[in-house]
User: Fold this.
Amino acid sequence: MISIKDLTLSFDSDRGRTIVLKDFHLDIADGEFIAVVGASGVGKSTLLRVIAGLVKPTSGTVTRDNPETPGRRPYALVFQDARLLPWRRVVKNVEFGLEGLGLDKQTRRRRAQGALELVGLSDKADRWPHQLSGGQRQRVAIARALAVDPDLLMMDEPFGALDAITRQGLQDELVDLWQRTGKTILFVTHDIDEAVYLADRVILLAGSPAGVRSTDQIAAPRPRQRDDATARHTANAIRGRLSGTVVDGEGI
Amino acid sequence: MARPRALRLSLSLLGVVLFFAVWEALPRLGLVKSMLLPAPSGIPASFWQEVSSGAWGEAVLQSLRHYVSGLVLGSALGVALGVATGMSRTLEDMTNWIVRLLRPIPGLAWVPFAIIWFGVSPTAANFIIIVGVFWINYFSALSAVQAVDRDLIELANAFGHRSPLARLFKVILPASVQPIMAGLRTGLGQAWMAVVAAELFGVAGLGQRMMQASSLLATDIVVVYMITMALLYGVVDAGFVALRDRLLAWKA
Assistant:
């Protein structure tokens, strides 16, 4: 389990103190798929960065049950842009997070190839990133995150920049991947339908400073239908709550 | 419409033929004294004479020695300090004013000091070349490092490469290879000019040999060395471009 307790983050600037997150609290069970939704700029991405240790919180803690294990990294991120290193071939991009873990070359290569297999891109291992399509690049980014075998896989609007058809394909692939690997996933999106379709639990982040506005268990059985009635109902309820909390007309 | 290849080739060839024809005609028709402008038809013989006497080979070797050592040292210093300054805010602030003071001084303005400090010696030539290429490489490396996409730095942090050295080798250097290479290439030309300039002041090499020939009004020999400089620079530049294209194979 991963516990996020009383997380608060504020910035000091010329215009005074801005509190981004206040007393954020979340327990994530192993193997759970959680989606965080909210308006743009509410602090969803920041939340992921705090958990990943890229941004130091003003107060609060993130703790894991699992002890540090050699050859793994506790957290891995997938960004909205695939963010591949253009000077590395695909397989070397996937090895990126494995370097510096004390693994030998063969082990790194084996694990990278395993991760590429999971996302169905084994045959693209020797390509350059610019030779791939947008969807393929994002799958490489997912493989790069999976390769380090993280306790928590965090995804920051990973499909937001893709066209609708590619996005739906990757959503289904992600669910499949999650079920096969048993990974714990924290998925940030501003697309409520996407959140409800993918996740076990949907957290609505809202307000300024932002906090948990609501939590919804998504009971719809898997494999899910995109037009599942109860899911649709939940999505509409979240949308309603969201528009109720948005102050200056910034909607979705 | 694009011109056919054959036509373009023959036009280029025609240009070369015309150039040499006019050059040959000027002294032959008595429009210019052949002592002031030697006809190109006489150059191969002079070239051969200079080569077989051993003077040419010796001068080329001496110049190349100045060139390579000054170029390598000046480029290495420039790139290293440029990268370091680009990565360190403190260093940037500290060097800011010094750089602004020293940068506008042309490399050749250091000739008096080079001679006072080192005499008319290979060291003086080296010094002038080093100064000449240092700034080019310093600025190209500095701005290249500062232009590295912040998102890639964040990626390195997210996947555990947080030490300055890891960041340098995993992201910053590979991301700035291209502009640094462009700086190095500009330096190749600049250093060559500095070599000749230093030798014109009497350090043994191509430039000095050329000055001797000119003081004896052996203008054909002067032309021999001008052509030699052009050829040597062409060879070095072509070699560099081949190396660069291998390093930047991922761009293709």
Chain B is about 80% helix and 0% strand.
